[in-house]
């Protein structure tokens, strides 16, 4: 099959969302934890996390257009911190449920049965059940006018990972850590490494 732009535009809305979301292949699956000044905790599912640089240590993610249910960006701007938590097979269903549009002020932690935990000087909650997680300090947001989304950039300040998963060269073995990946909007996967290759040179 060859799908033209006109054919894609003619797809039913949900069919088109599934089709286009699947094209990019496997994506990071994380839970982003935030809290507002009133103490309300928020936990949201994201599959748009990406590495931006190692010096300084930066990462970014994309937020969909804001709705009356959105809390993540408001909380990040208010508190200046957020956490990024890898998902394991043991709680993938709870992670998926965090994508539901709960009203503001309702804690996804409580709704799905995950546990918040805190470190000193980081106001955002981590997911206790997550094996690999890190905290970010808000650096920048950029509005993407093409579709009303927002790029959020954060600087990584604290990483929590069992020592056994960090190899001699600094490589974090996320497969050994049990990190789950996603494809499309609702398909979740574990991975199978083919091999690690040496740094490529001409």
TrEMBL record:
Top-level taxon of the source organism: Bacteria
Keyword check for Nucleotide-binding: no
Swiss-Prot/TrEMBL cofactor(s): FMN
Keywords: Flavoprotein, FMN
Record carries keyword Secreted: no
InterPro entries linked: Flavin_Rdtase-like_dom (IPR002563), Split_barrel_FMN-bd (IPR012349)
Family per record: Belongs to the flavoredoxin family.
Protein name (record): Flavin reductase (DIM6/NTAB) family NADH-FMN oxidoreductase RutF
Organism of derivation: Sphingobacterium zeae
Lineage of producing organism: Bacteria, Pseudomonadati, Bacteroidota, Sphingobacteriia, Sphingobacteriales
């Amino acid at each position: 099959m060859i799908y033209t732009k006109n054919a894609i535009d003619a797809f039913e809305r949900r069919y088109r969302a599934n089709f286009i979301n699947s094209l990019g292949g496997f994506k990071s699956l994380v839970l982003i934890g935030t809290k507002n000044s009133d103490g309300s905790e928020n936990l949201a599912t994201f599959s748009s996390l990406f590495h931006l640089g190692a010096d300084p240590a930066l990462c970014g993610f994309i937020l969909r257009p804001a709705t009356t249910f959105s809390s993540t960006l408001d909380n990040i701007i208010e508190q200046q911190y957020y956490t990024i938590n890898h998902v394991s097979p043991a709680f993938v269903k709870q992670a998926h449920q965090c994508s539901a549009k709960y009203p503001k002020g309702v804690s996804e932690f409580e709704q799905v049965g995950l546990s918040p935990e805190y470190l000193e000087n980081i106001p955002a909650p981590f997911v206790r059940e997550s094996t690999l997680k890190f905290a970010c300090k808000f650096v920048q947001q950029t509005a993407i006018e093409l579709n009303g989304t927002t790029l959020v950039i954060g600087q990584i300040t604290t990483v929590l990972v069992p020592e056994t998963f960090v190899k001699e060269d600094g490589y974090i073995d996320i497969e050994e850590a049990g990190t789950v990946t996603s494809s499309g909007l609702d398909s979740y996967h574990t991975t199978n490494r083919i091999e690690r290759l040496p740094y490529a040179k001409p």
